[in-house]
Amino acid sequence: MFRNQKYPKNSVMVLSVIGLVVGMLLSNMISVYGVDAVSAVNLSSSSPLKQFKSGTLPENIKCNDGLQLIIKATDGSPACVKPATAITLVSWGWAKSIIGSVQNSGGTPSQKVITLADNGKSLTLQKGDSFLLKLGEMYNWNVTIDNQTVVSRVVNIMVVRGAQGVYDAHNAGQATLAATGDPSCRSSVPACEIPSILFQLNITVAPPLDNSQSLVVLTDKDQYKIGETIGINITNNGNTRLFPIGWGYSIDGSDGTHYAPTGVLKMMLIALIPGNSVHWTWNQLDANGTQVNPGQYNITASYTEENTQKQISASKIIEITGP
Q1: Which of helix, strand or coil describes residue 176?
Q2: Cα–Cα distance, 160 to 87 (Å, whole number)
Q3: 288 alpha carbon, distance to own chain's centre
Q4: Buried (b) or exposed (e) across 121-159, using 16+ Cβ within 10 A?
Q5: Domain with CATH 2.60.40.3880 in the chain
Q6: Is 115 exposed, middle or buried (0-12, 13-18, 19+ CB in 10 A)?
Q7: Which residue from 32, 85, 194, 238 could staple onto 183, CB 3.0 to 4.6 Å apart?
Q8: What's the CA gap between 91 and 147, in Å, rounded?
């Protein structure tokens, strides 16, 4: 009965668009059985749904390396997908929550959201990490990255409203993400006079951690401008608790002069258990509150192993540059 029926041209266009969207969904979304439709990855023992039906709580379900555990909004069933896909599914309402972080060999969380509040800040990632850039929709954003071998935008995925894309970390190195935001009201008549704004994020993709070292010192980047706060992370990669010697760290100049920390230690520092980190910051001031000179500085962590009483240390060299 529909053989000779003619459809308006705009209906054909709508059907074509629907077909395109369905194709994107099939290539990015997951099946109702809780298995990634693209990679069809199965766990070594069972799929997420089989784990769920066997009585495993959703938060205890294990995904393969590099996959993210999410929960389907309609029936509460679990699924393991890629990080970029997880962000998209949550933004569309297909998944009601993202549980935990991406499963990977290094155990480093991969889900981060970068907003306007992060303007001018530094971000340290590991290879394989990703982040969502969400600067809002009050401005039309033009985003550039000066070193796309280090970090680049993931193409052909949809993101939540107000976001400018998902970005993946590829290789160790440094990159700068810069964005110019032009007010949306510029296109109205009459145009508004609100000025454009600039956004910058300094990104460091750290080399893989050497798990053979029981104590590791990392900073958010290797080079700092005068007056810039330096973030220091000391991590216990071993299998025994470590106790700090004094403050647990020191910062010295290339000539051996001690600069930080200063003053008398007035608190009890707790043990650093395996897999955990302690975070310190340095404002580049010496004991007199004076800005230190440009140059290289050595950050050394010093701890004692609980069982052997063996003293161990690790260090990292950073550089402070002039104005």
Answers
A1: strand
A2: 8
A3: 36
A4: ebbbbbbbbbbbbbbeeebebebebebeebbeebeebbb
A5: 215-321
A6: middle
A7: 194
A8: 28
Cα–chain center distance at 294: 30
For 83, the enclosing helix (H) or strand (E) is: helix 83-92
DSSP designation for 319? E
Please answer whether residues 165 and 135 qualify as being in contact, where contact means their C-beta atoms are separated by less than 8 angstroms. Answer: no
Burial class (CB in 10 A: 0-12, 13-18, 19+), 193: exposed
pTM for the whole structure: 0.41
The tens digit of pLDDT for each residue in 239-256 reads: 889 999 888 899 998 778
DSSP letter for each residue of 105-171? TT------EE-GGGTT-EEEEETT-EEEE---SSEEEEEEES-TTTEEEPPS----TT--EEEEE-S
Q: pLDDT tens digits for 53-112?
A: 777 766 667 777 667 777 777 777 778 877 667 666 766 667 654 544 444 333 333 458
Fold of 113-206: Immunoglobulin-like (2.60.40)
Q: Which residue has the tokens 């400018």?
A: 164
Class of domain 215-321: mainly beta
Strand runs labelled E in the chain: 67-72, 78-81, 95-103, 113-114, 122-126, 130-133, 139-145, 151-153, 165-169, 173-183, 197-206, 215-219, 223-225, 230-236, 242-253, 258-260, 277-282, 295-305, 311-321
